[in-house]
Design goal:
This protein is of the alpha+beta class. The protein is built from two helices and 19 strands. The two termini are 47 Å apart.
Length: 363
């Protein structure tokens, strides 16, 4: 047993000329070679009996003698090669182990940033290099030539970033981080979700706002929202919520909410999924692929205005400034079933249903 360190290597001295080398006797070898009887034995011809390859008869030439010094040199070289090979193999194994440790450390880069103070890596860029070919171009989070307009990976609706919503690297892809101020928002140029029909909104979220309301996604910029998805205080504690407006102009009595009480909200990366079934007139909220709740909602009010990231409109006032990170935002024109919600979280949803819009994809 050892303590894990490599044992010291003491190189052997080269044999002196004529000494016989490593393990070879000094001086000329005994007749018959090392280990062979002096009379040849073991099937070897006796001296003077070497046959001629041409005639098959006896040869009169003396028996050839091996070059013993050359054999000793070759043996010494072979020993040195084996020692070098074993040493090189040990170094390779250590290098591979060290490389594996580096890989797992780099893998931690896929985690959301703990707060809004994390700075982007110097080498990260939300847009591909102009010289990159189409086949090898990296993923682009923004529209080419416009670093403040999020690119829609499935549709044609870009989302304009507000001053306090910045793009930040997330592994080899990107996320947006809000500071929790009135300028921590982003909005599209037009409505994205048709709330008169079934839909599902999905986002990977990370809230670093310890108190109050924090809205990740909503739609509408008039007097009130059509729907909102994010954080609200319920019974003195933060909880994930999905809320829809069923009456004109946002009367409190016409809102319907699904609340997920219990799960940790603060600084906990969560996949939020809000679904509306227009046929059943129900809304459902899923956390990390599991249904947190469902309620009857009735038809959703079609509030005027575009999709919003990081805020929501309540009684003509912007509320719920987002503090934290958002990415993997997807819109579907169908209501997910519990089985589809679970499959999405496991990455097994497949190509159907297909998103109608998507931004800041990381997978």
């Amino acid at each position: 047993m050892t303590d894990g360190a490599n044992p010291p290597i003491t190189p052997q001295p080269e044999p002196s000329p004529g000494s016989g080398g490593y393990g070879f006797p000094p001086g000329p070898p005994a007749q018959g070679g090392y280990g062979f009887p002096p009379d040849g034995g073991y099937g070897y011809p006796q001296p003077g009996e070497w046959a001629s390859a041409a005639s098959g008869g006896p040869s009169t030439s003396p028996a050839p003698q091996p070059d013993w010094e050359a054999m000793a040199d070759r043996s010494a070289d072979e020993r040195r090669r084996k020692r070098l090979w074993m040493l090189g193999g040990a170094v390779t194994v250590l290098a591979l182990l060290a490389g594996g440790g580096t890989f797992f450390l780099l893998g931690d880069g896929d985690r959301p940033k703990p707060d809004d103070a994390a700075a982007p890596a110097a080498s990260a860029s939300p847009s591909p290099s102009p010289s990159a070919s189409k086949s090898s171009a990296p993923y682009s989070a923004t529209v080419e030539g416009d670093a403040t307009l999020l690119r829609d990976s499935y549709g044609k609706t870009g989302i304009r970033l507000g001053p306090d919503f910045r793009i930040d690297p997330l592994g080899k892809r990107f996320q947006i981080i809000g500071k929790g101020t009135a300028k921590s928002y982003a909005q599209s140029a037009e409505p994205v979700v048709d709330v008169s029909k079934s839909f599902t909104v999905v986002a990977r979220v990370y809230s670093s706002g310890a108190k109050g309301s924090r809205i990740a996604i909503s739609q509408g910029d008039g007097e009130s929202f059509s729907f909102e998805l994010g954080v609200n205080e319920v019974k003195g504690k933060q909880a994930w919520i999905f809320r829809v407006q069923t009456g004109d102009k946002g009367a409190a009595a016409t809102t319907r909410t699904v609340t997920a009480e219990g799960p940790t909200v603060f600084k906990t990366a969560t996949t939020l999924m809000a679904s509306y079934d227009a046929e059943k007139k129900t809304i459902a909220l899923y956390l990390d692929g599991k249904k947190a709740g469902e309620t009857v909602a009735g038809p959703i009010w079609q509030a005027p205005g575009p999709l919003q990231l990081g805020r929501s409109k309540h009684h003509d006032i912007w509320t719920g400034a987002w503090q934290g990170a958002l990415h993997n935002i997807r819109i579907y024109d169908t209501a997910f079933t519990p089985e589809q919600a679970a499959a999405y979280k496991e990455g097994k949803l497949g190509s159907s249903p297909k998103p109608t819009h998507a931004w800041l994809l990381t997978s």
